[in-house]
Design goal:
With 451 residues, this protein is of the alpha+beta class. It folds into two domains: 211 residues, PmbA/TldD superfamily (PmbA/TldD fold, 2-Layer Sandwich), CATH 3.30.2290; 227 residues, no CATH class. The protein is built from seven helices and 21 strands.
Length: 451
């Protein structure tokens, strides 16, 4: 809801309320839990590939209904406008409980929610601009696939307990794939999200692709080495995403207790981790989650001390924790599921990347993950393939590739010594973000083995 009232004061369309009443009356009111969710949206997708460009504008409307009791439930969804007549399936799912309404903090609709979708010419100009800038940054490199999609949607939700809410989303995504000069077939890709497609910066994106292609082409593996490392936001976001079992869900605290033996201090003082569904300017900013529960900021790790996991309302019923408003619906076709919205390591104002780089006498500036990370909770181990730059006395001396960052999960968290201000997010099952961090004592191996 754009006005920021409590969810029970929202106005939903008549068919939503009529459907809720009809479902609740099925077979003599055997369903004491019922929910109706609707969503309508529009999007424009512009793609660029060798030899052709395409632009597609689409509009979509869909709905989902959940109903049941403590013993059984059903879930139904469809396109178009929801109607009270159904038909509705027989309940064959698990028992169902739904949240009750609570007052929500005021939320003002951001002004960029009202901006029009990116036009066809704008989309083509954005992708062409990235292609041109890439060719200028690294002669002979080419953008071989590119797609930008800009969308806006409005959702309504009402349940049998009187919870009602109506709110909007705005999200743009960008996928780029580029190839390096020469016949080696070296490729680099980016997948990014912003609230508005106009926030994508062609020159910055081209430089990032060019740097990645250069490092992949020229970088060499280093023998086993240990030293100080700068970990750039794209790599840190991948690591945080891999570590989400420590932060999200009912099993998270058990994993933390197992790894740290019940000690609440799991990291250095610079490590403050939060999730915030209404992060100002965030790509997924919204006043409510996928079940109509108010979103909010939740501190998971505070200056290195573990505070709590991220939990939905139904995961907190028998716990000491308050709900975080973190039930997500990937679309109206999907059931709500727990997950982060904007999960991020808090940046440190006034600390630049150059400040941290200057502190490295001998080490590495690791920029990207070149593949998926592996996390072994039983063995307290992780590894992730990386590329970047070797650093001597605060200056880059050469590219590094075909290397693996490997070590203990507990050791990695303890290694973080300083945090910069350059917070950036990646869409990794939610928006996962981090600034550049300085870590000490990490080990780097050649990909073929620890040598």
């Amino acid at each position: 809801m754009s006005g920021g009232n409590a969810p029970e004061k929202a106005v939903v369309d008549p068919e939503v309320q009529e459907t809720l009443i009809a479902v609740g009356d099925l077979d003599g009111q055997r369903f004491d839990q019922a929910e109706v969710f609707t969503k309508k949206g529009k999007s424009r997708r512009v793609t660029l590939a060798p030899g052709h460009r395409t632009s597609v504008y689409s509009e979509e409307r869909g709905w989902a209904v959940r109903a049941g009791n403590r013993r059984a439930s059903f879930f139904a969804s469809g396109t178009g406008q929801v109607t009270p007549a159904g038909p509705w399936p027989e309940p064959d799912g698990l028992g169902l409980r739904l949240p009750k309404p609570h007052a929500a903090p005021r939320w003002v609709l951001p002004s960029d929610f009202e901006s029009p979708l990116i036009g066809e010419r704008e989309g083509v100009a954005l992708l062409d601009g990235i292609a041109r800038a890439l060719a200028e940054e690294l002669t002979g490199s080419r953008l071989i696939q590119a797609a930008v999609e800009d969308g806006a949607s409005e959702a309504q939700l009402m349940n049998c307990h009187g919870l009602k809410c109506r709110f909007r989303h705005r999200l743009a995504s960008l996928h780029l794939e580029a190839v390096a000069p020469g016949a080696a077939g070296i490729r680099a890709s980016l997948y990014l999200a912003e609230r508005d497609a106009r926030k994508f910066n062609p020159l910055a994106l081209a430089r990032r692709l060019a740097d990645r292609l250069s490092i992949l082409s020229q970088g060499r593996a280093r023998p086993r080495d240990r030293g100080d490392c700068l970990l750039a936001p794209p790599l840190m976001a991948r690591l945080l995403a891999g570590l989400t079992p420590l932060w999200v869900g009912t099993e998270a605290k058990l994993k933390v207790d197992r790894l740290w033996g019940g000690d609440r201090r799991i990291a250095g003082e610079g490590w403050t981790l939060l999730d915030n569904g209404r992060l100002p300017g965030g790509a997924l900013e919204a006043p409510f989650d996928g079940e109509g529960v108010a979103t909010r900021e939740t501190v998971l790790v505070d200056s290195g001390e573990y505070r709590r996991p991220l939990l939905t309302w139904w995961q907190t019923r028998d716990s000491e924790y308050r709900e975080s408003g973190c039930s997500r619906r990937a679309s109206w076709r999907d059931l709500p599921s727990p997950g982060p919205t904007h999960l991020y390591l808090r940046p440190k104002a006034g600390i630049s990347v150059a400040d941290l780089l200057g502190d490295i006498a001998r080490g590495y500036y690791l920029l990207e993950a070149t593949g998926a990370g592996r996390f072994d909770w039983q063995e307290n181990r992780f590894e992730i393939p990386v590329c970047g730059l070797e650093v001597r006395r605060g200056r880059a001396t050469g590219p590094v590739n075909h290397c693996v960052l490997r070590g203990k999960i507990t050791g990695f968290l303890a290694s973080i010594q300083a945090v910069a201000r350059d917070l950036a997010f990646l869409p990794l099952g939610g928006m996962i973000g981090s600034p550049t961090v300085l870590a000490t004592g990490l080990e780097l191996f050649a990909e073929e083995g620890p040598g």
